[in-house]
Amino acid sequence: MEEAPLSTLLSNLNELYLLHRPQLIDVAYTSRGNDDRSREYEFVVQPSADGLPYRFVHRWLQQVAGDCTITVQEYTAAGGYNTINSPSPIAGGGGAWGELSELCTIDAAATRIRIGYTNTDNYFPAHVLAFPEPSAVPSVPVASGFFGYNSGLWTASNAPCTTEFLNRCKASAVAVLRDRRQQAFSFCQDRSGSPKWPGLYDLPSVAVLESVHKPISRFRISLPGQTRTALRVHCLGHTDNPGASIGTAYVRQVGGGDANSSIGFILPNTVDSLPTVNNAQSGSLVVFGDTPELEIGIRVGDATGVYRTTLNSFVGYWRPGD
Amino acid sequence: MATLASRTNWTAINLDSPITDEATPPADLEMLALAEFFIRAVYTAPYCGAGLIFEGNTPGFETRQISQVFAPATTRARYFFGRYGLGGAAQAPTKVAGEESGLGVYSVSASAATGTEAFGGIDDTHGTGAVGYSDTEPAGTSNADAYFNVRELLTSTPVSYCAVEVQRATSLCLHTPPEGQSGDLELL
Asked: How far apart are CA A141 and CA A147, in angstroms?
């Protein structure tokens, strides 16, 4: 076997490490607008084991001319909340859409991302996207299992083609694939003082009013080429019933699933406040087909209308091969 | 022979086994082909089309911009969106539009206004059906179907994320159908 084709393949493997960029975060906020209040969005995250830099792209509507400042924080058990960007005011004209693109390194041990907005005038936060954007191929094997290629190993003519080089093509490619989880679905609303939906009630009627909503939504996701997939799902929320944790949140496949295609979580009756109070609820959901229809919702568990259940975020991740 | 983009079912193959476990295997073209397959398969595999859930019906906030990233060798995407029915009166149509890095690669689709949708109803624009399409924006851009055009690139560079504008929806999923991948990577 000539060395040149295999050397080319291994060079392509290095490029794969740099250019495989599926979205880790893809969240459209549910938010109030028409005011200048600070807002905060938080959700569970499963970043790369290699501590990669991620390209964050934020979009918001500056409803009245003013300055917008965005802060991105990660949470790790060892370090608490840590700001991973360089926040600075961004001026925007009235009615203009703002876009901020920035690189932030997410620690491999991070379990949450919190994105904070402050503004000098009325605004509406819309969306955040984040995908890995490494700038260098590691020279040694890394935590994800990827082992890069140094062409200097093959400087001599007629150098041997080792089986390890062949196997590295598969092993390292699969390592990159499996290490970079992809956002499969997301719901997130402001967790600060004035979320869009501060609390949801169980009503005896199915009528939906503008200010009070029933459980949330149905939606589709796309898992190209897949037939049976296990998603890792995470929920953040709480009920304000002081006597018991009675609120629940669920996600399920609508039609076509089996017993593992739905999962529910009991929501705590205390507000999430790391590190002492961690409300994150996690589990696995098995879905079938390449474009399954899913549904998320809540059950307040109280038909009197006295107590509320607030859903802060609900996200799902796909690790190809699961 | 064309070099195809991948659409691999990752749970249908063994990802853990080595290509060969022989210490000194014979020179074998099949082994090289297998090595090439995995690199190409991962590189060109379409990314998951995330389902975004949001409240997009409040007057004054029906329109939002989002960003999306697509895998290398993606040419076009389709989308699913969910609408929220208030019942009774006809509603304004949902629209999805976009551009990529200012190149004006637009695709606009609008669902027909409906009046009696149930909460969480899905308007599936994946195929044909009772969905109408508006004229495109800007004027003159053709819009033969519900595809969302993506600039075809061999790399997933920062310019491959797109600005998408969606109006009057409660969920959105942009995804890459089989026909939305390059027919021959060597032509990129």
From this structure: 4
Q: Which residue, among A8, A11, A59, A127, would best test binding to B if mutated, counting the most B CBs under 10 Å from its CB?
A: A127
- What is the C-alpha separation between A198 and A212, in angstroms, rounded? 9
A30 touches chain B (CB under 8 A): yes
User: pLDDT-based confidence at A8, cuts 50/70/90?
Assistant: confident
A-B CB pairs within 8 A amount to 236
Which residues from chain A sit within 8 angstroms of residue B19, using beta carbons? 166-167, 169-170
Burial of A189 (0-12, 13-18, 19+ CB in 10 A): buried
3-state per-residue secondary structure call for chain A: CCHHHHHHHHHHHHHHHHHCCCCCEEEEEECCCCECCCEEEEEECCCCCCCCEEEEEEEEEECCCEEEEEEEEEEECCCEEEECCCCCCEEECCCEEEEEEEEEECCCCCCEEEEEEEECCCEEEEEEEEEECCCCCCCCCCCCCCCCCCHHHHCCCCCCCCHHHHHHHHHHHHHHHHHCCEEEEEEEECCCCCCCCCCECCCCCCCCCCCCCCCCEEEECECCCCCEEEEEEEEEEEECCCCCCCCEEEEEECCCCCCCCEEEEECCCCCCECCCECCCEEEEEEEECCCCEEEEEEECCCCCCCCCEEEEEEEEEECCCC
Identify the residue whose tokens are 């059950």.
A299
Residues A25/A128, Cβ–Cβ less than 8 Å: yes
Tokens at residue B164, please?
Answer: 């998408």
pTM: 0.87
Q: Which residue of B has its CA nearest to A127?
A: B66
pLDDT digits over A96-136, tens only? Answer: 999 999 999 999 999 999 999 999 999 999 999 999 999 99
Task: Tell me if A194 sits within 8 A of A276, measured CB to CB.
Answer: no
Q: pLDDT tens digit string along B81-136? A: 776 544 444 455 566 666 554 333 333 444 444 432 222 222 223 222 223 333 22
Backbone angles phi, psi at A270, to 5 degrees: -130, 150
A19 contacts B43? CB cut-off 8 A: yes
Question: Which pLDDT score, from 0 to 100, does residue A303 have?
Answer: 61
Q: Could you give the ipTM of this predicted complex?
A: 0.91
